Amino acid sequence: MLLRIAIFFTALLMANATFGQTFLVGQRSLTFVDASRANRSIPVEIFYPATTAGTNTPMAGSAGIRFPVIAFGHGFVMGVSAYQNIADGVVPAGFIIVMPSTESGLSPSHTEFAKDLAYLTTAMQTEGNNVNSFFYNRIDSTSCVMGHSMGGGASVLAMQYNSSISALANLAAAETNPSAIAAASQINVPALIIATSTDCVTPASSNQLPIYSDLQSSCKFFVNILGGSHCQFANYNFNCALGELTCTPSPVLSRAQQHAIINQLLVPWLKYVLKGDCMAGVDFESYANNSLDVATIQSCAVCAPTAVNDAIGASLIQVYLNSQSTLHLQSANGCGNARFSLFDLHGRLLLSREVGADPVDIDLKNDYKAGLYLWRFDSECESVAGKIVLQ
Known about the structure:
It is built from 8 helices and 18 strands. By secondary structure, it is α/β, with parallel strands linked by helices. A hairpin with a 5-residue loop joins β2 and β3. α1 crosses α7, α2 crosses α3 (about 150-160) and α7 packs antiparallel against α8 (about 280-290). The chain is globular.
């Protein structure tokens, strides 16, 4: 009996050559001015992929290599410096994080903070189009708003002020004034809501879970870190620790353990939703559903299937079944020799084949057992990735 094979695709292009590459973290201080709000001043720290770690070091990659932007909001009376762990975890995967230091006093405006986050995603894309900017031609069109605690709630509010934002993620998001829970009902972009089981500052039951429930996103995830705490989303911060002083029970996880779990969730999810990296999406979903460190609720499966015989929509390459068991591969003229790679779920390379303008057909029936496999197709014109399920 012939093998039945279902193929799942990402149709998004990987428009740069940084697939899987890691970077060092550069840092740059800027102050943006929002003319629409009486020239509101917004000081920020920007963390970006760099050739050398440090302040104002050159950006990594050649000219034209672009990185998605993440605007990240700090917690109540917490400074940007508390979130170096977030920058160190996410930026090496090829993202730029912008952290405003506004609304850091005892009477913050959640609305203005939300507007700051919304403004910064567009402001950074404007920088990418400014020939005189350090970030000229280095900013991708995709973006995400994110935050911790108060900043997490503000990230939800921010969505109403900028319809071009691609995704929403937050850490122990707090209910805000106006209500982040109410604002969630107007959001339909991909979303990742992360909570912890021992959070007594912003308990999941009255903060993150209602936000998750009210989101209208067709693809949303709620992930509860078991044994984690509210303040351990960040580096140690006296103000946060003071607010958590009377919390019981104490967290089971150490701060380092919680940071490692955060990276296991955030990095592949961001690569999936902002870069179209299907393999990263599979890694995220596998960890979220199988790790003993988290409990997950979700509304979707990553890398939704297309029809079995559909070719990739990018059209510069072809990947499709021309029979029930034969995979057809072809690259476009002018794109050079492409490389098709097949991996198992642990990332081990099983098959590598050079593909040019002449078609290549590979019979999968006899060499591979039933199960899930990941693939990648790289050419000089583009890179795409997906997964195949052999039954």
